[in-house]
Amino acid sequence: MPQNHTMMQFFEWHLKADGEHWKNLSKMAPKLKEMCIDSVWIPPVTKGQSAEDTGYGIYDLYDLGEFDQKGTVRTKYGTKDELLAAIKVCQDNGIQVYADIVMNHKAAADETETFKVVEVDPENRENVISEPFDIEGWTKFTFPGRGDKYSAFKWNFGHFNGTDYDAKTGKSGIFRILGKNKDWNENVDDEFGNYDYLMFANIDYDHPDVQQEMIEWGKWLADTLNCDGYRLDAIKHINHEFIKNFAKEASSHRGDNFYMVGEFWNSELAACQEFLDQIDYQMDLFDVSLHYKLHEASLAGRDFDLTTIFDDTLVQSHPMNAVTFVDNHDSQPNEALESWVGDWFKQSAYALILLRKDGYPCVFYGDYFGIGGEEPVDGKQIAIDPLLKARCNKAYGEQDDYFDHPNTIGWVRKGVDEIERSGLAVVISNGDEGEKRMFVGEHRAGEVWVDLTNTREDSVEIEEDGFGVFPVNGESVSVWALPDEDTN
């Protein structure tokens, strides 16, 4: 019986830019494995605009903290050697490593070039609001610190289809680059008319040389890191035909076990389903729909009908393709997609992703260890640890739902013979104290179950007919199970 798999997003937006992150991952790998984390999604490993850049303002795809470029050898997170060492330590501890790859844009070019553009309306990028004119754009990437090592490819304005700054006039806007066969890519999200353009110099995936270079880079990076998979950033802005080809090429190069998950940030389930169809299910997607349901539930309190929590979510419609999460670096406070799940509901939200049979759950570093910056947030390790242990040791077997009350829901995992003392009963309330009478199996009669969250000090004795009456405090979650033998 394979153990349940759990991912951790091993970074948050406000990590200190001290170059220590890869070393910290090496140190913490054994502890993560102990907490039943068996994969980590690490932040972008490639050189950004500066030593402080989170990695999403990407400069050189081939510089993993090896070359003196943009005022630094290391990235925000450390050097290439420290990165490779951290990946090996993780793998030696039974933890897979998924690298975050940013393929939508490039930033901090080495030189400007003059070329023709039209300005477009930011609210509707199909709407041209100027005559063609010349701008001086930051689009020439020559990588003087790296030269031709690993790749001789140099980027110029012909490899991009949009930019946001004219160095000649100091004007900012969204400028579509003109040229033969040059336009926004069509196979992208249709928000703002066409959402190909996101930021900086926008990579043109209709350009055959670009496609070839990026696919070759994808293979090179996986080989160089010897990583176990990729998290693909901002894919609703990238030609989905390219994403499909990139994923197929990476899988055939690294083998079918090379794991990929995409950030397709769209809360509409139909759009996510359509995208999975378009890319032939070559990767999983983060369940953005579920994240927003959890956020809504945390805002609405007892006015939210908990029986609907999984309606219109990816984990309900495509359980084998959903990576479930509560929060991430973009949804954390003061960030681009802020939609932070409130503290009072956080443990319940994690129970909903960690203790059910469907989805591949991802625990956020910021939730577990805390968030830094000017408005720090404490970590919730004490609330999350019991759920991780329960996922590891208890959350197996058939699942029966008791979603029969808008403010108090529950479910049972029946357990499996292969994992001793497995099985559990979960009850969540977003209103008053409550209880659920749930069936855990006649063979359980006489067993005494305890609340693994330590919220309730009482215990539940399973009745002769295999039912138990499982209580929960108001606005809380309780996870009832047979205690591990060493806790008796």
TrEMBL record:
Top-rank taxon: Bacteria
Domain Glycosyl hydrolase family 13 catalytic: residue ranges: 5-391
GO terms, molecular function: alpha-amylase activity
Signal peptide: none
Family annotation (SUPFAM superfamilies): (Trans)glycosidases, Glycosyl hydrolase domain
Enzyme Commission no: 3.2.1.1
Enzyme class: hydrolase
InterPro entries linked: A-amylase_thermo, Alpha_amylase, GH, GH13_cat_dom, Glyco_hydro_b
Cofactor or coenzyme needed: Ca(2+)
Alphabetically ordered keywords of this record: Carbohydrate metabolism, Glycosidase, Hydrolase, Metal-binding
NCBIfam families in UniProt: PRK09441.1-1 (NF006968), PRK09441.1-2 (NF006969)
Similarity annotation: Belongs to the glycosyl hydrolase 13 family.
PANTHER family assigned: ALPHA-AMYLASE
Protein name: Alpha-amylase
The organism of origin for this protein: Metabacillus flavus
